[in-house]
Design brief:
Blueprint (H helix, E strand, L loop, with lengths): L7 H22 L6 E4 L20 E4 L13 H6 L9 H7 L3
Antiparallel strand pairs: 1-2
């Protein structure tokens, strides 16, 4: 919701909180176990426009049994775009998440 309010400080704090309180504990709990995680928002809400846009949605797809082909140093719209990875239909990501390869 912080994007809808143009609130950069709290948007960053919210993302960091999700990382600290959800993603981090899940990764720790499953350390050494087979694990697949797909992390993404349902839509972009840039601070500048404070509403949904049609821009590509950044995502992180982590699979403990697959070496990543494309990586970014951090999670952001700009860094995700720089990887060159684009999935035109979000539903296709579920196939990648559940794939055995």
């Amino acid at each position: 919701e912080c994007g809808h309010h143009g609130d950069a400080k709290h948007k960053i704090e919210s993302i960091e909180s999700i990382d600290r309180e959800v993603v981090g504990p899940v990764l720790k709990a499953f350390a050494g176990e087979p694990l697949s995680i797909l992390l993404m928002p349902d839509h972009p809400t840039p601070l500048e426009v404070m509403t949904h846009t049609g821009e590509p949605v950044p995502f992180v797809l982590y699979r403990s049994n697959v070496q990543a082909e494309h990586t970014a140093p951090a999670y952001s719209e700009k860094l995700a775009a720089a990887t060159g990875v684009y999935v035109p239909r979000a539903c296709e990501l579920m196939g990648r998440l559940l794939s055995e390869k």
